[in-house]
Recombinase
Amino acid sequence: MSAFHRNRRRADGLAFYCKTCAAARSEASRRRRGIAAQKKAAMPLADGLKWCPDCEQIKPVDDFPRTTNASGRHSYCKPCHNSRGKETVQRLYGGSREYHLRRRYGIGQREFDELLAEQGGVCAVCGAEDPQHVDHDHRTGWVRGILCFNCNGGLGQFRDSPTRLARAITYLRGTTWQRALIHPGVYQMCSPTRGRPPSPRF
């Protein structure tokens, strides 16, 4: 059992391949992807320090992102870890925009552009030009359309509820305060839902 790495996700708590085979598989995978073997520190490290093979610097362990592996920290320091993530997103998805759309909504930039073209290039609610926000049903995850920032946020604030939106429409139509003439040169504010204020007695 000592010849296998630990793996909490497996029933027996051990990796599928032994350490020797796992190392060989990792090296073969790196060669296929054109990635150089990970460098190691030239000298033993004191407690609280860790070697980053990308920038080849010894840094405090707090400079390394946390993870669930045995050491509790990633192999690369935070700046190198972030740059590797960006490189992977660029290599696999062509950029962060494509990655975000695929991961969050299940569509790519091509589908986004097609949907926007079907809407005439404007927000599906207010008609504003160049909308950039994907609107989706929070219950099913299905994409509904492309909206501007304000319309997308507005639907979210109303929790995608037609009932709440209908009540808001009723509220806007029924409680707008207006200026009413009650005497030549004398005005008073009134609300249609509360009726015209009584005329004063002179």
In short: The two ends are 101 Å apart (CA to CA). Helices lie at 19-33, 78-93, 96-105, 109-118, 149-157, 162-174. The longest strand covers residues 178-183. The mean pLDDT is 86.
